Amino acid sequence: MKIYEKLLLENKAWATEKIQDDPEYFSRLADIQKPDFLWIGCSDSRVPANEITNTQPGEIFVHRNIANMVVHTDVNLLSVLDYAVTHLKVKHVIVCGHYGCGGVKAAMTNHDYKQVLNMWLRNIKDVYRIHRDELNSMADEQQKFDRLVELNVQEQVIHLAKTSIIQRAWKNEQRPHLHGWVYGLKDGLIKPVFEMPANTNIDHLYEYDDL
Question: How does the cofactor attach, per the note (predicted)?
Answer without folding.
Answer: Binds 1 zinc ion per subunit.
